[in-house]
Amino acid sequence: MPRIKNPKQVVLNITDIGHKGTAVGKTEEGLVAFVRNAVPGDKISALLYKKSKGVWQGRVLEIIEPSIHRTKSFCSYFGNCGGCSWQDFAYQEQANQKQKQVLDAVKRIAGLEADVFEPILKAPQTEWYRNKLEFTFSNHKWLTQAEMLHKEQQLSSKALGFHRPESFNKVIDIDICYLQNDKSNQIKNFIREYTSGIDWTYYDIKSHQGLLRNMIVRTNLNNQIMLVLAVSDRDDEKLPNLFQEIKLRFPEIVSCYVAENKSLNDSWAPLTCYKIFGEDYLKESLEHVNFNIGPKSFFQTNTRQAVALYQTVRDYASLEGSQTVYDLYCGVGSIGLFLAKSAAKVVGIEEIEAAIEDAKVNAEINKIENAQFVSGDVRKVLTKEFAEEHGFPDVMIVDPPRNGLHPDVCQTILEFQPERIVYVSCNPATLARDLKILSEKYHLLKLKPVDMFPHTSHIEAVSLLELKKI
Question: Where exactly are the structural domains of the chain?
């Protein structure tokens, strides 16, 4: 997308939220632009510097009239960190805008309206709600404006925190993050203090050197913690002393792992995690189902709201104990296991093999015998032969990634004709696209947005589709 040689300055009235934390504004002439650091209700002066497919991108020059929904952010890193898009935007209006985003997408893209559009399920907690955070070690610290003004001070180049948005080689050093249980901050800050000396090296993304690379902190509702540390050399002689200190200072850490990463990227997927002390898993419960969460397991990041999401899925599925349920893109099987006691049979399909192994473990610990889990690409696994072997589905649960269902999967669903489909989506646009395809044979009965991540642009939605009567 080329930059405009002569950027233009305009006045925008901000009307809606956009993708990835942007805001949508319009001029009085109807020109549409996307900007950051603005909220619906603002009247701003903006500099537009990019244009693509008739839509401009720009940046805020001045807030002429602030929105009545503006509020003071509670985190000192807001505006630099990027983890939260809208701490300066009142939560009730965040929820209203997210609800509007889902409704508008389904109307505009799919040309559909649900018989029942249920109000958004707001998050009961807007701070301290995450059960997992990943922090990055770096020797390329992002300097704040205050630090830039005092360059004469001898500042450490080390940082333990989050990547600066659109500046992947810089990491913002974080003292307090309000997204996870505060014990996470205490652990992170202790590790940074313990490793502040010259004997400890933080990873350099340019030279690909440095011992400490990443760390994951997981918490459960019982305030127990799993710590996972990624290093470039797990045999480094300094590490045992660090782990011993961590164990002594933080009895809440019930499971601790280390992973060796010698690759050029920070992906956890190919790494092997070695237990240092404690339990093999972090244990968590979602209503009546217990889960063992491993160091690399995928698990819904907002535990309390996940229960509410799954209860909505259960309500929409309306199981009576006799149905065969397919759970597509099942991950660790959490939705399927949540529904299993109300179904005759649950069949889960997931491409990530490690997730399927977790699903099988979780079925075993819950003594659930009517759930099967299969590893493979849904597009390739979901065939007529597969259904003949496992039974054709009466109810289908689909929870795909952001890019939604592959067209081939949509066509297979239309061929199988389950009585009901419960579609869980994290992307209103792809949800609407897929609903339009499925509307060939299905009627949209219910639609409900669910806010899993306050102060961010993310929104989930649960929709119920019923096979049309001939």
Answer: 3-65, 93-126+302-467, 132-286
| Cα–Cα distance for residue pair 398/85, rounded to 1 Å | 28
Integer Cα distance of 161 and 214 in angstroms: 9
Contact 106, 437 (CB under 8 A): no
Amino acid at site 152: E
What separation in angstroms does the CA of 203 have from each of 166, 169, 442? 19, 11, 52
Q: At 5, list the tokens.
A: 């040689």
Fold of 132-286: OB fold (Dihydrolipoamide Acetyltransferase, E2P) (2.40.50)
pTM of the model: 0.93
CATH level 3 topology of 93-126+302-467? Rossmann fold (3.40.50)
Active-site residue set: 426
Contact 425, 461 (CB under 8 A): yes
Query: Is the separation of the CB atoms in 257 and 226 below 8 Å?
Result: yes
Each residue's pLDDT expressed in tens, for the chain with a length of 470 residues: 455 667 889 999 999 998 888 999 999 888 899 999 999 999 999 999 988 877 899 999 999 999 999 999 999 999 888 889 999 999 999 999 999 999 999 999 999 999 999 999 999 999 999 999 999 999 999 887 666 666 655 567 899 999 988 777 899 999 999 999 999 999 999 999 999 999 999 999 999 999 999 999 999 999 999 999 999 999 999 999 999 999 999 999 999 999 999 999 999 989 999 999 999 999 999 999 999 999 999 899 999 999 999 999 999 999 999 999 999 999 999 999 999 999 999 999 999 999 999 999 999 999 999 999 999 999 999 999 999 999 999 999 999 999 999 999 999 999 999 999 999 999 999 999 999 999 999 999 999 999 999 999 999 999 999 999 87
| CA 432 from centroid of its chain's CA atoms | 20
Q: What is the signed CA dihedral for 25, 86, 136, 133, rounded to 10 degrees?
A: -130
- Contact by Cβ (8 Å): 397, 382: no
Q: Is 167 helix (H, G, I), strand (E, B) or coil?
A: strand
Alpha carbon of 182 to those of 205, 296, 458: distances in Å? Answer: 28, 22, 23
Q: One fold for both 3-65 and 93-126+302-467?
A: no
- Which H helix or E strand runs over 168? strand 167-173
d(CA 247, CA 458): 35
Pick among 3.20.20.70, 1.10.760.10, 3.80.10.10, 2.40.50.140: CATH of 3-65? 2.40.50.140
